């Protein structure tokens, strides 16, 4: 090793110990730790920096310089010296040797925006990449947060601080092997490309005779399906996290433990690569141990298309090898890796028939260290390295067996979908070539060349009044024009001044213009009528890389919106959009895998991969003043009061606020500024106008919130010239008035500009006591970086507690860190919980401004009575999985069932109310609606009383009186409430053992939850129930039985006496005689003895003498 290299290496070690970034070098050992540049959210301006950051929620502004550094790349002399004691392995045609000193995995791979590249390792593979010398790219722990600034929502304008966790200590450096092994013969037995028979009896691992290689695929108890569905990898710092448990079978677990120093396993995965790696390395599949170090195996793709395979040795060092052959592009292929002690077999097979592509065997004399439960696997990208650009297919992992490719049972299950992906990119290659040739011809000719057979009004005028031009036909055949008529039509209609001049960006620009043209037609009064004619334009736009069009197509086909429903085609465009990192497409994929609906398998780790990608971008998008973004507001179409305050710049509410703000009303000034800054309440985003109101309020009033907001604007320099002196004065003034955001801002100032960590921590502790979530997050970053005053060591546990506290306060980056801890499970205080990780990442992703823009367009259309446009945008928003749009869409379908039935192939009301009730925080009216649908049955859905009871119970638990009322009615109709539902409602079945008692409890709760002051249905039902109970009690009392018996006895006695008296009077008749009193009336007989015929039917009347 030369003196220069030695000096640089010594300087690197010194920097690692002291935390300083050596000039041009780095403090790398095996740690992924102190990397140069800032951590997530930093500017990466440290002297050892320069790399992009990783870590959740990173922002490239207001960062803190990285404190660590990277290793200076070594020389071939150093590599040769290391090769002398590195061991020798044998490949197909010779030896491997220790490779040139390269960066570690962390240093090699770009991480997410704003964080540092990892500390470089002393050695890596010849192709470059993650030798064990460095952690997978961890730099600073997180961003320092100044505070929310002029916003009413989580997040802030300033994100000071570093990002990724860095690690103080470093392990020994890595030894790297450059793979020069030759390709071995394909197989000694059966060819991998031939078809296989049924599975045969499993054979024990170990050497086999050649004839054993002909065995059919076998099913083994140690096989794990890491991925069963296609995954769209966007080439960014997100991927799928998987973790292996220990075997429950004691024999298998004992075998696994015995093979820690002699790994025997096989990995088989399908890949579809669009491009080779744009960085030095891209992640395919790699293991990260409990110390955040790369382990065995770690497989990456290089920028030349080779595989970079890295292993950790028993003695603590690492080896990295590179395959001789490159991977195929735009072709589905299966990659099989078999490890058997020190031998690695790499095999690639093309297509469904597994046609052999390339095989290579590499042998080593070193012992690999392999413990697949002491960490987690990552498929694709992570904080440490970007993922590949393309698609992952099924991935099988045989934990205890090494298998020949012919024995591996890992077919490409989604064959039709995989074929459509291949056809899509073949078609798109033609589209992109047409656009490129068109723009290239325009640039070369200085103007747009007119095709001889094309005419429009512009060409006619130019030919009539312009200079004579030579008609130059494009080099396209008629067959090509027939395949892409909409594209040629769009290119012809593009004006001369609108033709892109930059050929590199021309394809994407043309795609954007095609999309804008299509959306303009969709936004018309009868926009839903236009969908079928717009689809070809959206397809061309998607092929040009403008993936908003891909998401539109995905939704159209999945819901059958004015097109025939085609789930497979919808999946295609959703995956294509996700691969292109389109935000709504990724959220759609994340939601479908989170719930397991629409033929997407339930897979929380896969869902997290999509959601975390958008969640990481959300804080960046929130502070980007450009783009089609709006603040995500929870506005329900059933809430009339909220709808009344929606306004525009010429609306009554806005004009009244502006009037009050002009008069000096501080509250009006702040609200007006917030509406303009974030685009809230229907007002268009206008940061410049917002800053004017912040300045006016801060300088004219003593309101601490306005003073603080304007201080942030001055620190940031958004719309105004930076003025740090005035900003500090205003910040101190706001802090003196007791505003906790300003106290946190002072801590940020002393950290960012004065490098006074002790004073920064003092202010942050004070703000944290006042309840400021930004301060909690910043304290967590101090502990994660190990720079908290007086505590030199890193404390991930304490950092996690601060992050969790910040997340509970709505802090976006704190939430992202918690979701990361839950998905990896590497922190004891955060046991692995993939579902909870998805929930936290989903919560952040649904705050994305691009989603807010779609929701706002749907709301504005609804308020204006444009039903076609409202239905379109609410369908687009609802398919991302955001609950408020799902319930709003169901409400629109209830209001306009004719519209929903005519244009949607799905059962709109059922689908979106059903989706919404499985969301966290769903409104009670959605549960009531689903309860009604289950009770009565809806279209093709049959009646289900059990599910109806569950829906009503959930509404009741949410405090809705209607839920209690409906449950009581079901009981009165004879339904039985299961005990688990009663337990759910905290009704003790032992106390309320009969239906009457349960009814009383339900009606009482219904009445207590009712918001009506006068008589309500609940109170009337309660009163009626008690009247019935009183009447029933009266009818069934013992007194009534006694009185009834007594009265019955008296009645019988009186009857007997009466008949006796009647019989006695009949046996002794008395003759009639005249009364002695002349005034006494004469008694008339009941019927006169002599009556004429006319009076026989007339009633008799007693004749009384007149007085």
Describe the structure.
- The chain is an alpha+beta fold and 1107 residues long.
- It contains 38 helices and 15 strands.
- The strands form 3 sheets. Strands 3, 4, 6, 11, 12, 13 and 15 form a 7-stranded antiparallel sheet that branches. Strands 5-14-7-8-9-10 form a 6-stranded antiparallel sheet. It has a two-stranded antiparallel ribbon with strand order 1-2.
- A hairpin with a 5-residue loop joins strand 9 (306-312) and strand 10 (318-326).
- It starts with a helix and ends in a 40-residue tail after the last helix.
What tags apply to this protein structure?
single chain, 1107 residues, alpha+beta, seven-stranded antiparallel sheet, six-stranded antiparallel sheet, 15 strands, 45% helix, SEL1L family member 3
Report the β-strand fraction as a percent range.
Answer: 5-15%
Give the number of DSSP strands.
15
Q: Please state the structural category.
A: alpha+beta
* Average of pLDDT: 74
Largest sheet: 7 strands, antiparallel
How are the SSEs ordered, and which strands pair?
Blueprint: H1 3-18, H2 76-83, E1 97-98, H3 105-108, E2 177-178, E3 223-227, E4 231-234, E5 239-242, H4 250-258, E6 264-275, E7 281-289, E8 294-302, E9 306-312, E10 318-326, E11 333-340, E12 343-350, E13 355-363, E14 375-380, E15 389-398, H5 415-445, H6 457-465, H7 478-483, H8 485-493, H9 503-522, H10 531-543, H11 548-559, H12 567-579, H13 583-595, H14 604-622, H15 640-644, H16 652-662, H17 666-678, H18 687-700, H19 704-716, H20 724-736, H21 740-752, H22 757-769, H23 773-785, H24 796-808, H25 812-824, H26 834-845, H27 849-863, H28 867-878, H29 883-895, H30 897-903, H31 908-917, H32 924-936, H33 945-957, H34 961-972, H35 979-984, H36 995-1009, H37 1017-1035, H38 1038-1067
Antiparallel strand pairs: 1-2, 3-15, 4-15, 5-14, 6-11, 6-15, 7-8, 7-14, 8-9, 9-10, 11-12, 12-13
């Amino acid at each position: 090793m030369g003196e220069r290299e030695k000096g640089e290496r010594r300087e690197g070690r010194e920097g690692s110990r002291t935390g300083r970034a050596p000039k041009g070098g780095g403090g790398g050992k095996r740690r992924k730790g102190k990397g140069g540049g800032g951590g997530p959210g930093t500017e990466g301006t440290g002297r050892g920096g320069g790399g992009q950051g990783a870590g959740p929620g990173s922002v490239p502004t207001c960062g803190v310089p990285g404190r660590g550094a990277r290793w200076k790349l070594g020389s071939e002399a150093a590599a040769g010296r290391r090769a002398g004691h590195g061991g020798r392995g044998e490949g197909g045609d010779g030896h491997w040797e220790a490779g040139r000193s390269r960066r570690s995995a962390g240093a090699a791979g770009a991480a997410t925006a704003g964080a540092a590249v990892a500390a470089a390792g002393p050695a890596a593979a010849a192709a470059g990449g993650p030798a064990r010398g460095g952690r997978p790219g961890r730099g600073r722990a997180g961003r320092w947060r100044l505070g929310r600034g002029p916003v009413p929502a989580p997040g802030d304008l300033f994100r000071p601080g570093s990002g990724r966790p860095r690690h103080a200590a470093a392990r020994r450096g890595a030894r790297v092997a450059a793979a020069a092994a030759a390709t071995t013969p394909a197989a000694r037995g059966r060819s991998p490309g031939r078809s296989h028979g049924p599975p045969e009896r499993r054979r024990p691992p170990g050497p086999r005779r050649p004839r054993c290689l002909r065995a059919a695929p076998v099913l083994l108890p140690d096989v794990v399906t890491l991925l069963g569905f296609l995954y769209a990898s966007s080439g960014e710092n997100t991927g799928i996290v998987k973790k292996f448990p220990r075997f429950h079978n004691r024999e298998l677990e004992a075998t696994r433990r015995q093979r820690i120093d002699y790994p025997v396993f096989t990995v088989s995965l399908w890949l579809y690569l669009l491009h080779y790696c744009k960085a030095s390395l891209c992640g395919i599949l790699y293991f990260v141990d409990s110390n955040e170090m790369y382990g065995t195996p770690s497989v990456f793709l290089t920028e030349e298309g080779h595989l970079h395979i890295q292993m950790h040795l028993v003695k603590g060092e690492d080896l990295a090898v590179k395959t001789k052959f490159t991977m195929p592009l735009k072709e589905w292929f299966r990659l099989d890796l078999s490890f058997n002690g020190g031998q690695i077999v790499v095999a690639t097979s093309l297509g469904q028939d597994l046609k052999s592509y390339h095989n290579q065997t590499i042998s080593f004399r070193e012992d690999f260290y392999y413990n697949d439960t002491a960490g987690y696997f990552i498929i694709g990208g992570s904080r440490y390295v970007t993922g590949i650009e393309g698609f992952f297919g099924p991935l099988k992992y045989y934990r205890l067996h090494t298998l020949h490719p012919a024995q591996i049972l890992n077919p490409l299950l989604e064959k039709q979908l995989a074929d459509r992906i291949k056809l899509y990119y073949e078609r798109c290659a033609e589209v992109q070539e047409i656009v490129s040739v068109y723009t290239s011809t325009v640039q070369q000719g200085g103007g747009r060349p007119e095709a001889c057979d094309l005419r429009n009004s512009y060409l006619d005028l130019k030919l009539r009044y312009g200079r004579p031009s030579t008609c130059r036909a494009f080099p396209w055949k008629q067959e090509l024009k027939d395949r892409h008529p909409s594209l040629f039509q769009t290119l012809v209609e593009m004006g001369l001044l609108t033709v892109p001049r930059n050929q590199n960006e021309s394809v994407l620009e043309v795609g954007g213009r095609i999309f804008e043209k299509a959306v303009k037609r969709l936004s018309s009064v009868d926009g839903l009528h236009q969908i079928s004619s717009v689809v070809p334009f959206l397809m061309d736009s998607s092929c040009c890389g403008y993936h908003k069009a891909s998401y539109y197509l995905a939704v159209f086909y999945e819901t059958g919106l004015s097109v025939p429903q085609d789930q497979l085609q919808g999946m295609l465009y959703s995956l294509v959009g996700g691969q292109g990192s389109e935000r709504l497409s990724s959220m759609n994929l994340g939601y479908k895998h989170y719930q397991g609906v629409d033929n997407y398998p339930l897979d929380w780790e896969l869902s997290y991969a999509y959601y975390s990608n958008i969640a990481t971008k959300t804080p960046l998008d929130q502070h980007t003043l450009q783009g089609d973004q709006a603040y995500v507001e929870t506005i329900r179409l059933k809430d009339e009061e909220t709808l009344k305050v929606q306004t525009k710049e010429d609306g009554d509410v806005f004009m009244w606020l502006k009037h009050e703000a002009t008069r000096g009303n501080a509250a009006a000034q702040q609200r007006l500024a917030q509406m303009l800054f974030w685009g809230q309440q229907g007002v268009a985003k206008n940061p410049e106008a917002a800053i004017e109101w912040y300045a006016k309020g801060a300088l004219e009033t003593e309101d601490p919130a306005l003073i603080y907001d304007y201080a942030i604007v001055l620190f940031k320099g958004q719309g105004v010239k930076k003025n740090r002196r005035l900003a500090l004065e205003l910040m101190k003034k706001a802090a003196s008035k007791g505003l906790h955001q300003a106290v946190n801002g002072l801590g940020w100032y002393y950290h960012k500009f004065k490098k006074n960590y002790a004073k920064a921590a003092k202010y942050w502790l004070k703000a944290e006591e006042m309840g400021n979530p930004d301060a909690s997050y910043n304290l967590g970053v101090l502990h994660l970086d190990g720079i908290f005053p007086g505590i030199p060591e890193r404390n991930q546990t304490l950092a996690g507690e601060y992050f969790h506290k910040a997340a509970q306060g709505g802090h976006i980056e704190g939430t992202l860190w918690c979701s990361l801890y839950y998905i990896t499970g590497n922190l004891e205080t955060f046991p692995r919980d993939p579902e909870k990780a998805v929930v936290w990442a989903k919560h952040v992703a649904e705050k994305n401004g691009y989603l807010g823009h779609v929701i706002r367009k749907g709301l504005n259309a609804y308020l204006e009575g444009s039903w076609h446009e409202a239905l379109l945008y609410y369908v687009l928003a609802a398919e991302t999985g955001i609950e408020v749009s799902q319930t709003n869409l169901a409400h629109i379908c209830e209001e306009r069932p004719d519209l929903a039935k005519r244009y949607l192939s799905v059962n709109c009301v059922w689908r979106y109310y059903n989706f919404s009730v499985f969301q966290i925080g769903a409104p009670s009216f959605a549960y009531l609606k689903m309860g009604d649908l289950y009770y009565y049955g809806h279209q093709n859905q049959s009646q289900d009383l059990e599910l109806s009871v569950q829906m009503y119970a959930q509404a009741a638990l949410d405090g809705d009186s209607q839920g209690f009322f409906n449950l009581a009615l079901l009981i009165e109709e004879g339904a039985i409430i299961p005990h688990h539902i009663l337990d759910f409602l905290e009704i003790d079945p032992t106390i309320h053992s009969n239906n009457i008692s349960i009814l009383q409890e339900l009606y009482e709760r219904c009445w207590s939850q009712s918001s009506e002051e006068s008589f309500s249905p609940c109170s009337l039902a309660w009163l009626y129930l008690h009247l019935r109970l009183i009447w029933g009690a009266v009818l069934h009392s013992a007194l009534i039985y006694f009185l009834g018996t007594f009265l019955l006895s008296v009645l019988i006695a009186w009857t007997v006496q009466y008949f006796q008296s009647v019989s006695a009077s009949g046996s002794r008749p008395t003759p009639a005689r005249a009364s002695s009193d002349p005034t006494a009336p004469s008694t008339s007989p009941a019927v006169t003895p002599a009556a004429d015929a006319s009076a026989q039917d007339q009633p008799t009347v007693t004749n009384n003498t007149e007085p």
